[in-house]
Amino acid sequence: MNGHDADSRANRPPWDGQPDAEALGETWERLASLRPEAGPATDIDESWARLSGRLFGAEKVAGAPGAGAAVVPLRRRPWLRAAAAIAAVAIGGSALWSTVPASATAAAGEWVSIVLPAGTRVDLNAGSTLRWSRGFAWLPGIERGARDVQLDGEAFFDVTPDGRPFRVESGAVRVRVLGTRFNVRSRPGEGTDVSVTEGRVEVREGTESVVLSAGQAVSTQRGSLRRVDATDAPAAWRTGGFSATDARLEAVIAELERHFSVRIGTGALSPEVLDRRVTLYYSSEARLVGVLDDVATALGLRYREVSGGWEVVPAP
What we know:
The chain is α+β, with helices and mostly antiparallel strands.
């Protein structure tokens, strides 16, 4: 190598040949006139090598020993020192940002669709909240976190595989998948239902676990994991429908309140009546009056419209 080539290589910035080199170069050029304040002595060459490894995914950068090129000491490039310092701050900020939780909520009477980092789509049913870490996504220099989410309520998941497990925590139940489509419903005091449309999931509660394939479902409504008949009913809400499978009347009324964003009084009903089981299925365009009429007919009750909502009462 002649002297001219060596000088040319020595004056090339460390990111030369890296992705987005042009954009990085423009940013660093604006920093060329900065004069960092004096501080304690540090081995900046070693710091840059470590920083470059995190930024560009390599332990060595152009100009590093063993790469067949001359070493470029940062002491000769004040603007590179400033650039390294700012990049280090950016990575530290990214690491902190990646731990900040994010959430999405569907209020009563509405349904929300969101797309999580890495492409997984989630449809949230009314009165439901999903929480996840921003570290879900890949950030420069930051290791991708686990794809863990917490669900309060009901949601349909269409998981995009990316090599990491996708885990849903809902009540006392844990659902683990690699790539699939499934529905999870979990309401306070009502247990958890999981049904699979496509792929396979593992459902775990305490020491119990069961693996579900497409067309299978499991429920914890009666205190333990048990397989139940799988139908299209659990996800009927996604098309404007409504469903309940072997559910307590009290739970059905609460779900109707969330679904239609309306108050339904049950104060006149005894605990025994509220504990009775109901199975309902409306594939689409469910109407509150139609559902109440079916419930009242099946259980020998009646309903009426009152100020501020509706009321279900015993039959005379």
